[in-house]
Amino acid sequence: MTKKFTAEFIGTFWLVLGGCGSAVLAGSVIGWAGVSLAFGLTVLTMAFAIGHISGCHLNPAVTFGLWAGGRFSGKEILPYIVAQLLGAIAAAGLLYLIVTCQSGGAIGGFAANGYAENSPGGYGLCSALITEVAMTFMFLIIILGATDERAPKGFAPIAIGLGLVLIHLISIPVTNTSVNPARSTSQAIFVGGVALKQLWLFWIAPIVGAMLAGIVYKFFKPGK
Predict the structure, then answer these.
(1) Residues whose CB falls within 8 Å of the CB of residue 176, separated by 6 or more in sequence, listed in order
(2) HSE (CB half, 13 Å, CA atoms) of 146?
(3) CA 209 – CA 107 distance, rounded (Å)
(4) Tag placement on the chain: N or C end, fewer CB within 10 Å?
(5) Contact, 22 vs 14, CB < 8 A?
(6) What secondary structure letter does DSSP report for 71?
(7) What is the DSSP letter of 105?
(8) Cα–Cα distance measured from residue 95 to residue 21, given in angstroms and rounded to the nearest whole number
C-alpha cells in the first residue's frame, strides 16, 4: 500500500502542478486550449509512469468510479483519497510559492473552480452541476473502457489523456473544469472565500458522475 500511496501522491502532484501550473503561469500565453492539453498530458505521462503501480487514479472521483464499476477495493478508497489530496495540496503549495515570490502575494484566481461569479463564462449553478456530472461520467466511461481487459493493450493512457483534453476544451468556460475533487480542493484552500464556499459542488458532482459511469459500464460486461 505504501508504494501505491506514494505513486498516487506523486501522480496527483504532477497533475496539479502541470495542469493548474500551466493555467496560472502560462494561461495568458497558451490559452484554454493549451491548458486543456497540459491537463491531458499530465494524466497521459503519469498513466505510463505509475499506472502499473497504483492504477494512476489521481482523482477521488476516479477512485469511487472504479469501485462502483467493480474494479477497485473499497478498503483502499480512503488511503487513495488521502494520498491524492496530499499530492494536490503539495503541488498547489509549490505553485503558490512560485507565484508569490514573483508577485509579492497576488495569486488571482489561482485556477480555482467555480460557478456564477467564479465561472470563466458566467455560467450558474445548474449549468455547473450538469457539466461536472456529465464530464466526469464520460471520463470514467473512457477510463473503464480503455482499461477493460478486452480493449487493445498499451493504449489506455493515450485514450484517457486525450479524453481529459477534450473534457477541458468543453468545460473550462463553465467551471474552469474540475472533474477532480482533489484538484479543486488544493486550489480552493489557497484562494479561500467563494472558492471554498463553492467547493462542495466539485466533490459531489464528479463523484456522482463517476459512480454512475461505474454502474453503467457493468452493463458491458460479458454475459450481461
Answers:
(1) 23, 109, 111, 112, 113, 114, 118, 119, 120
(2) 20
(3) 31
(4) C
(5) no
(6) S
(7) S
(8) 7
